[in-house]
Design goal:
387 residues, 4-stranded antiparallel sheet, alpha+beta, 3 domains, Butyryl-CoA Dehydrogenase, subunit A, domain 2, Butyryl-Coa Dehydrogenase, subunit A, domain 1, 16% strand, 12 helices, Butyryl-CoA Dehydrogenase, subunit A, domain 3
Length: 387
């Protein structure tokens, strides 16, 4: 994949926006444990940053998937992964299925405001007893006239305390677990207040502090059946489809984040003097940083290859799973190695490498754990053991 001058222009404008509107506020938002999503998303929406590859009919830029990868690389420069992830939920997790399979009415009611930034969105898949095992979710919707009446709970919901609506994966019938689920747009607020039957409990985490993560409880929440995205019973399939772009974009964003960790470490170890010379001048340090940078660039090549496959209309599942697996492991390896070279300073909260160490540990867990990625890769290799 080759970036044109148009791709570079998008990245440059986005980096300027991040430098002005996001990174100066990182310390404040981290301390508060939340960022002003509505305020920030309206600014981003006005510039087209929340709908790069969404249809122009609903306010998007209508660009192809190569621009989404360019966008993700630039957005990875946000110096708090909590905000970076919150944006990704809005653009790459909660809205892709709606953009592809939703009715025109549904896209105008829910997608267009998400692209403009007027609405903040969440994705509701995981539950307290169902994370990577998506088929085992328990939240149910029974039919009552023309409505669904939904009861259950969702866990680890990014943007959970601020979201206006949630793209909810819910059991809408009995039967096979891969064919009884639907995606439904469920409002979480009514006239600015919490919707009837909805309650939210914020979750404290070891990282991603500026992301307001929550558990959401739904008690007999009534929504029209017309809020369903696409066909009933196809929710699991739709969710699996959008997982691939989500996982590849996660790798693209973290390639930039890890590059920043390397560069920050070079700057610190060049200025930190120990035993009469900069720490960076020790061969064990600069050789290790060179090895880590090489691993990052190899992953970038894998991301580009997977994107090319996707752009050609072919199945990128195996490659996207490989990229997701590799970025999760690199996030652990790079941040741990670099923190070592910061010495005692690396173990404090007031530096970017410790924040990256806390934030990026999640990548091996969220969006499909490493073990799930290995299962998918083994399936494509034809080497899964027989049950």
């Amino acid at each position: 994949m080759h970036f044109t001058s148009e791709h570079i222009a998008l990245q440059d404008s986005l980096r300027q926006f991040i430098a002005k509107e996001i990174n100066p506020h990182v310390q404040e938002w981290e301390a508060a444990g939340i960022f002003p999503a509505h305020e920030l998303f309206r600014k981003m929406g006005a510039l087209g940053y929340l709908g790069v590859n969404k249809s122009t009919e609903y306010g998007g830029l209508g660009l192809d998937y190569s621009y989404e990868i360019a966008y993700c690389e630039a957005i990875g420069g946000i110096r708090t992964q909590g905000v970076c992830m919150a944006i990704a939920v809005q653009t790459e997790m909660a809205t892709p299925a709606l953009a592809r399979f939703g009715s025109d009415e549904l896209r105008r009611r829910f997608l267009a405001p998400a692209i403009s930034g007027e609405s903040v969105v969440s994705i509701g898949v995981s539950e307290a007893g169902a994370g990577s095992d998506v088929a085992s979710i328990k939240t149910r919707a029974r039919k009552d006239g023309g409505d669904y009446v939904i009861s259950g709970s969702k866990m680890w919901i990014t943007n959970g305390t601020q979201a206006d609506w949630i793209c909810l994966l819910v059991n809408t019938s009995e039967g096979a677990p891969h064919r009884n689920k639907s995606l439904v747009c469920v409002p979480l607020k009514e006239n600015g207040k919490r919707a009837r039957g909805v309650s939210v409990q914020k979750i404290d985490k070891i990282g991603m502090w500026s992301s307001d993560t929550a558990q959401i409880f739904l008690d007999e929440v009534r929504v029209p059946q017309r809020n369903r995205i696409g066909e009933e019973g196809m929710g699991f399939t739709y969710q699996m489809m959008q997982f691939q772009e989500e996982r590849l974009s996660a790798a693209a964003r973290r390639v930039t984040a890890l590059t920043d960790v390397i560069n920050d470490t070079i700057e610190y170890t060049r200025s930190r003097i120990a035993f009469g010379k900069p720490i960076l001048d020790n061969q064990v340090v600069h050789f290790r940083l060179a090895e880590l940078k090489t691993e990052i660039e190899l992953l970038r090549s894998l991301v580009y290859r997977a994107a090319d496959v996707h752009l050609a209309g072919e199945d990128m599942t195996e490659l996207a799973s490989m990229a997701k697996l590799k970025i999760g492991r690199l996030c652990r390896e790079v941040t741990d190695s670099c923190m070592q070279y910061w010495g005692g300073m690396g173990f404090t909260l007031e530096n970017p490498v410790s924040r990256a160490f806390r934030d990026l540990r999640l990548i091996s867990i969220a969006g499909g754990a490493d073990e799930i990625m290995l299962q998918i890769i083994c399936k494509h290799m034809g080497i899964l053991p027989k049950r």
